[in-house]
Each structure stands twice: as structure tokens, then as C-alpha cells.
Amino acid sequence: MSTLTHLDRLEAEAIHIMREVVAEAENPVMLYSIGKDSAVMLHLAQKAFYPAPPPFPLMHIDTTWKFREMIAFRDRIPDQTGMELIVHTNQEGLAQGVGPFTHGSSVHTDVMKTQALRQALDLHKFDVAFGGARRDEEKSRAKERVFSFRTADHRWDPRNQRPEPWKLYNPRKRQGESIRVFPLSNWTELDIWQYIHREGIELVPLYFAAPRPVVERDGMLIMVDDNRIPLHPNEVPQTRHVRFRTLGCYPLTGAVESEATSLLDIIQEMLLTTTSERQGRAIDHDQSASMEKKKQEGYF
Amino acid sequence: MAHYASDLAADDIAAYLKSHEQKSLLRFLTCGSVDDGKSTLIGRLLYESKLVFEDQLDALYADSRKSGTQGNRLDLALLVDGLASEREQGITIDVAYRFFSTEQRKFIVADTPGHEQYTRNMATGASTADLAIILVDARKGILTQTRRHSFIVSRLGIRKIVLAVNKMDLVDYEAAVFRRIEREYRLLARALDTEPDITAIPMSALEGDNVIEPGRSMPWYDGPTLMEHLERVEVDDDRAEKPFRLPVQWVNRPNLDFRGFAGQIAGGQVRVGDPVTVLPSGRQSTVTGVIGTDDDAQSAVAGQSVTLTLADEIDVSRGDMIVRTSAPAQTGDRFEATIIWMADEKMFPGRAYQIKTGGGTAQATLGAPKHRVDINTLAEEPARDLALNEIGVCAVTLDRTIAFDPYDDNRETGGFILIDKLTNATVGMGMIHHALNRSDNIHWQATDIGKDERAQIKGQRPCVVWFTGLSGSGKSTIANLVEKKLAANQAHTMLLDGDNVRHGLNKDLGFSDADRVENIRRVAEVARLMTEAGLIALVSFISPFRAERRLARDLVPDGEFFLVHVDTPLAVAEERDPKGLYKKARAGQIPNFTGIGSAYERPEKPDLRIDTTTLSPDEAANRVIGELVARGIVPGL
Prior knowledge:
- The complex is a heterodimer of chains A (300) and B (637).
- Chain A is globular and about 60 Å long.
- Chain A starts with 5 loop residues before the first helix and ends with a helix.
- Chain A is 35% helix and 14% strand.
- Chain A is an alpha/beta fold and 300 residues long.
- Mean pLDDT of chain B is 85; it is low at 1-5 and 439-444.
- At the A-B interface, helix 1, helix 2, helix 6 and helix 7 of A face helix 1, helix 2, helix 4, helix 5 and strand 2 of B.
């Protein structure tokens, strides 16, 4: 009798979680960020409900500042999966011209991401939203439940979490409350990459190193993805061989110089690297407990 | 220093991945208090497995200077004390999950706090763990908390224990200290569990001795380091050897041609062609398809999430359990279970909760605890309810039949949670012992002499005469007179008085709602036993609630319960106040006093109503006896 490998067990757990949600929720949605964790989550959803397509839509919160390659990749998903894709943008924020260059990363993230997500969940009356967060990403996530409750105003109360013994999740909620469900809670970054490798999951090409135009700002390599980036006088984009370890809004996502052009190269680079994944993200640098604060405010 | 796994990764990444995709998974729990160095131990496991990246390390150095407890040294505990409030208080409050992996295994660590007020968190962490590390401070030895941690771990079914005797550096690495603690612990574990599998390791998490590398200061110890043990320990993954169980989560019906039953296999294995039974309905069929993670899987084992198709069009829905026909699970609507209470509000016997088991959801009512376990002394003690973090044994009654296994046989089909229907909070978790079949669990012992024979000797028919009324209404006076008159005429009686019973049989009960219900239940049960003995039982009890009186009436056959309402207006009773109780109640000294702080529900249809404002006690007693004669209970006097 062959015992299950760690990837088998993580896969089975994620599928079990997704099925619980579908069985219990009234109107679930899967948040789709186009990144590698979302790709794994989508792949698992397809397995969980096979031969039916996953019985919920995907939703992308589009800040309008995502990499163009991400959007192109995203727009192929409905045909590939047979799933509905909802794209939501905070129209008020858009009308006010909110963006990372003009308003800074924290205002931009709050208005175009946090507020936008809350709007979208309220608009479509989704009661359960799948997210691809992992407990190994960040310290406050390590204590978050698989079924994580949000009050009617989308707040997270870390002190009032429901115990989850065995795999018995309690999905009951009051009118107006919603649940964020994290099927990848127990996965690590390495597990994600190993699973992508094992299952042959397709990723946005930005994860792979290629010559790309970048400028260096505050120690971060920012890709010049379109002409909205205001170049300083004398600032000339340089072509460097870079890739991205995480994907988000292009002005807030630092590239790393890399020669890793294949999946194996990426995994190798990841294993030998000495900085953690979130370092490329500008949002949780301010203070160590900042992610916890953002979550209490409704950031995913 | 290289990443723990990096040499192969650097040389041959494809080979590395191939070997790492085959790794097994070990989930373990760390039990201990902050002072035992638990966070430091986990911090060290992460640190030494090179899972702490440079940027995290920089932040850690900064944090260590700001709020660390190790002076200028790196405070590894800060790596794992996650939430800001926890860092401020310097304690670990919740269950946190940590991940690391080595060449051999991936590990998931449930890091749980050790204080008594966090028993529920620890139990949650233990519920999914294969192994538990019990930390003991070498200076302090086995403490009350060690006992508590070991008990919870044993109750949650963890059979592999690592006794980590930490802070050996503070006892000069003395072998004798370690040996004494190990010996004591083995005695303790044996008392909890028949086959404890204990590995004791002396270590210093702070200095790193015997965590990953052998400690140079303890040449007398030749066992494995903690990491060596965690990598090698055989976890009896015997789930695949158990009888097949598939709790059905969801029915997959994409079109008319396909109907699949999706769930995660909770035990055993299944292959195409297997005969299976659907519980609780008992309908049988044969497996025609196993849709697992491979397209053409013919079989699957415990732990996998699958979708099964069956040969027959039988009714199967969420909450059902598909089992191997030759080894079915138990079905029933009543079982005994160990309950761990997790809510601030007490467990209240008789209240309906929602229950969620591996095999479905239902409404559940808990009986009064058979006993509670003092988790510090492990003594079993009587209890009427369970408060936060208390552990007790209760009967659980469901509103429908479900399938389950005893927890010791299968954790996933034998564990459950209880949900408060109003707050939606998860208020308890439980482990099923065994089914309680209402009738065949306790067999009636047939006796040759019955109630009729006993009554015949006494020349009477047995019955319960139940006097209800306000305190001071004259119940006891009248009941007493009735008994005197009956005794004078050779009738066999027994008078149960509310106050008197509380001195003996019910002296363990107070005046909470739960206790009042139990008080009345016991008295009614005793009165019923008296009628079995052929006696006329006279009961004098305020019994203010209709539900309570109904309970008493329902215990005896029709025609043998006789309700007398001693009807005295509140003002009159208060005026009489023979025991001075009304005065005290008005002064706020007796909460819930009937008539003042708590309602008296007047009987709508008593068998006899006595108005004490117009009848003397003697006249009232004669009325009662007149009724008994009229009903043929006693011959005419």
C-alpha cells in the first residue's frame, strides 16, 4: 500500500474544503488574482468538481494597473475552464484617477483593491469567497482559520475565530456576514511550485525570466509596462533579464534579475534564494504587524 | 550555510524535485507553556532548517532588540509569536500553524498555547496531529500542566509522544535530572493510555542542543536528536487498513447521465466492483467508478478526495456515509461522548445544539454530564454542566439517525463539533465512545413480584398525589394532614417534601434553571419508584412550571397521578410568610424566588383546586382524601 505523499494530502484537503463550501454556501465565488497561487487553486477546483465545471464564478479585482500579460492570460480563462469570469474595478476610484504613482501605494491599494473587493462582494451578494492565501506567507496568516469570518463591514476579528478541529468547518453565518475560505492554507511556496511542476499548470509568462524594460527606484526594479509610468528626467528604461516572484500592480511589484527561464530553473532559484517571497511587494514593508492591520480592515 | 535541502537542488533540480514529490507528511503538535521554551524550540526548528530568509532575519534582529527577552541575542521565539497583541503580552494565544521540510519529510506544526484557559486551542491543534511534543522544563519536572497536556493528547487519540526535557543547560546537563523526569513521565503516561509510545529527549532549545545537532554537553545521551526522530518516526498510517468509509460531501450531477458522490475517504480503500452500503438508509450497491486525481483510477485510499459512481439509482445525499458492506459503521441517534466545551457560555443539558460530524449534521441535545474530568488531577467528578475548557462525558441525543464510528476506531467519523444555533459559534467538540441504544443499553430486570402484588398486600392502589403551590400556600401542612389521616386508616404512604429532599437526595443541587429541572426530575422519579412499591406517594413541591409538572405526570401510568393545586393568592402567602422567605426575597436576598423574581405558572386543569382562603387545612385534607376514595385509591374511611 503506497502512502500518500505530502502533495497528495494537500491536494485532497483543498478539494475537501472546496466541496464543503459548495455544499453549504448560497453564493460562492473564487477570487482569481492571475498569480501562481490562483492558478493552483483554479486547477484544484477543476479536479474537485470534475466532470462538472466548478459551480461558481471567478472574480478578478482589476486595479487597472496589472501587467498587460496578466490581463491577456486572464481573458483566456473562461474559454479554457467553462467558468464565468467577473472583472470588477472600483469605478469611483477610477473616476478620481487613483493610481500608485499619483496617490502612493497605500491609498492605491486601499481604494482600488481593498475597497474594490468589498464593493464587488456586496454588489454580487457573494457570501463565501475563496482566496489563495497561505499560512506560511506571513505571521498573522499563520493563525487564520481555513474558514475565516468577516463581519458585515468586512472586518476580521482575530480574537473571535472559530475552532476547526479535525476537518469539521462551521459555515454558519448571519445575514450580511461573509466568509473567506483559504483552501491553500497549509501549502508553502515550495509546495505550490512542486504542484505546478507535477501537474503541468500553465502560468503567466512574467514568472519566467526574459529581457524586459525596467527602471530602478528605491532599490526595486520596476517594469515599464506601459506609458503611464512617469519617467524622471534622465531616467531611461534599461533592458534587463528579469522575472517576477509575485504578481500584482506593475508599479508596486519589483522584478528580480534572473536567468530562470524554465519551471525547474525557477524552483531551483527559489530553493537557493535568501529573501522571502513577499519582499517584492511594497505593501507590507512599513511595520511588521502591518498585514494584520490591513486584514482587520478587509484586505484579503 | 546552505539551505537544508540545497545541495541536491543546486546539482540536479529535476532529481531533487522527483525525490521531494515523494516526501511524506508529519503533522505534530507542541504542548508546553511559554516558560517551557516552546516558541524558542519552534523558532529554532525553522531557523536551523534554514527556512528563515535574510529579510525575515533582519526584521527579527530589529524585533529582538525592541521586544526580545534575550538581550542582544536573537530571540527565536519572536519568529513564531505572530499576532501583534500576542507579542505585546509575550504569550502565544491561538493555534498557529508552521511549516518546514527536510530531505525526508514535510512538517506541519500546530503551535498551541499551554495554559489551562487555552485547552480548546490545544485540543483543536491535537485533533489533526500524528505526534505530540510535550515540553517539560528540566528545572521544574512534571507539573500539573504536563498532566493536562498529556491527558488532552491522549483523549484526542495521539499515540506518539516526544517528551522534550528542555532547558538542560540550566541544570548543568545532568543525566540524573533527565532520567528522573523520564521515569516519572512514563508512569503518568501509562495511567492515561494503555500503550504509550514515548521518546524522551534531553535538550536546550536556546542553545540548540539535541534539536537538530547532537548536544556536545550531553555525551551520556545516545538517542536521536529531535529532528532525527521527527524525520524517522513511523506514524501508523493505518487509516488505509481500516474499513472503507466515505462521508458524502456533495452529489455531483452535471447532467442526466452522471451522478457521482464526492467526499474525502475517511478510512480504508475502495475499488471498482466493491459492494457498498449507504448509511443510514442501509441501501446497497456496487462501485462502478472511482474518479480520483488520475483520470482512470480504479481505486483510492483513505485521505484522498474522490467521486464515486454506483451501479444502482439509489438515494444518496450529503451527510450520508458510503461504507464497505461487510464492515459497516454504526448508526443511531444516541451515543455517549467525551465533550470539550469551548464557549464562554456553559453547556446546558437539554438545550438543542447543531451537531456536525464526519457523517452529517443534525440537532443534538446533551444529557447532564455523567462526570467531568478535572484536567489537572485527572479525577472524575460529578457535574451538572460544563464550563469553558472543561471536559466531560455526556449522552448525546440526535433528532435523526446518522452513521458514525467510535472515535478510537476512526477519528474522522468519530469526532464532532457542536454549534450554537443562535450565535453560530462552535461551542464544543466531542469524541464518540459508543452508541447508546435507548432500550437495549440498559436491560430491564424482570421481577416476579410486581407493582400490583405489592399494592394488593397493602390493600390499596398506588398513586402520586402532587401538591403544587406558592411557598407558604399551605401545601406541606395539608399534605402532612392527609398522610396522618391515611396512616390512621392503615394506608401505606410516603411524603416527599421539597425542602427535606434538598437536605439529602438533592443536596448537590442549587437553584439554577438546570438544577431546578434536575431537582424535579429526581423527585418525580423517586415518587414513581414509590408507586412501584405499592405506596401512595405524597409530594409537596412548589413546582412552579407546567413543564416540570408535566414531566412528573408523564412518568407514571394514566390515572396514578393526582395534581392538587393549593391555591393561595401571593398576597396571602406573603402575609403568612412562615419561614420569612418573602421578606428576604423582597430584600433581594433570594434571586429567582417563586412569585417574586420568578413566575408561578398556575395549573390550568388540576385534579383538585383548594382555595385556602375559604377552607381550613383539615377541610382541605378531607377533600383530598375524598378524591382518593372516589378514585378507588383507598377504601372509604
